[in-house]
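Appendix B. Chain record.
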Amino acid sequence: MPVWATSSAPQADAGTSPVYGTDFENVTAADSTHLNMGLKNYFDFGNGNGAKMWVEGLDQHTTGITCHSGSRCIGMELTNINSSRRNDFMVYPQSLVTNQLFVSVWLYLPVNWQLYGPAGDNWYGIVDPFFTGAPTFWPYGALHILQNDPSQQSFDLTFDVRDMTGSYLNYWRTNGYSLPGGRWFNIEYYVLFDTTNGAVKLWIDGSLLFNVSGFPTANPSVPSWFTTVGKIYYNTLNMFSPYRIWVDDLEIYNTQPQSSSTTSSTTTSSTITSTTQTTTTTTMSSTTSSTSSETVFPKAVASNGGAAIDTSQSEFGGASDLFDGTDGYLSVPDSNDWYFGTGDFTIDFWVRFVSPLQAVQGFCGQHNGNALFEFLKSYSTIAFYARLSNGAIVAGYTFGWSPSPNTWYHLALVRSASNVYIFINGVSQTLTVTNPIGTNDLGDIASSFTVGYEHNNNAYLNGWMDEFRVSKGVARWTSNFTPPAAPHVRDSSTVLLLHMDGANGSTTFTDDVSSLLVRRRS
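Structure tokens predicted for this chain:
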């Protein structure tokens, strides 16, 4: 199995490994329809003209899109056609799996993909979880986009199944679900192969949209089958612009990966319309487990008050964020990524204080009523506290520190099991413990996460901050270490990464987590 070229590639839970995986970093085009990938992977151009494929970052058709990980991914296009055409990325993994298939793949659609077609009552495909090979091609199950209101550019996501004679069995349809454009999104699907009682589950960005069973997914007279992990299919007579889709970070499993550990569970519902002889509406419930690792997407970062990029000072990258000590801070919306529970976490960053030193300055935190999570400098003390909504303090640690102004320091706050560590420039500090963290759950605080501000003491940072990172599920350091000598590189534990780079005076801050897949859902 290929080794992932970058740490931002999808990661399975511990104990579950893919039987095949590629991030396309080493793939080369062998001819017009095949790729050198170790399996029988190829593009089927279907009805011919108008179909194009390329290796982004390698071939002459490179468009300059940023791949999900690394510098290479697969691009597909249909254009200049006036009848039904398709362009499929077909994979034949039957030698690697038995009666179960689990696929994870990352896809990218243009920002305004709705504007590129189809026109009128048309549809096009995204993936086909299962498809029997020649000569029948049945049964099959296919995920499509179907336009339900051309005037509003409203689309439904559909999953349809045909039996071994090619007749439609079932047709499941969401109500107005629209795929994201302009960013990478993750599709995962699971197929149980059976000649009479097969099943399919399909997730998009971790949300279970389809969970259907009771139909054939295998043909006893046709042993071969394939799955399409990227698909463009136009059933249209009037495609008026090119349509493109990109594929990256493909993993294939011979069983459905299970969540490694469950910390909390919430139930969500999605409404699916099932059409056979008549149309009925059923509501499917899916249980989404919050695990020790999750799907992480770039977060919106808002600049508030006097927080802006400053190119006069930096530790890395030629810029940092200058906080004015009065009303400037960054805020990131509430997220399950801030709920550390009883798990390990690390918050680290570089900070440089303005002279003269302001007495109370906040580094980061959350606050809602009694509940809080705070990391701050208070006079000549550095403090970390966590308190639940009932007022119970579940963590309390301090140590004395008198920093010098106009000097860069690397600070790290770490939880490792029942221990808390705070490091300055890689040196572990001797902490005064008022409330040991033990096995305490730090609580789920319903509030934004702030950087350069601590709400409970109304404490604003007066100085610069660079390379701010939040890592969930990992204690990056538990003993003295050498501070980072380069900008952070995101990995599967990174849930927030702010490089603080940009033009002087800019108030735009980018979270560099790039839609990391770091969990599986059962």
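Further analysis of this model is presented in Appendix C.
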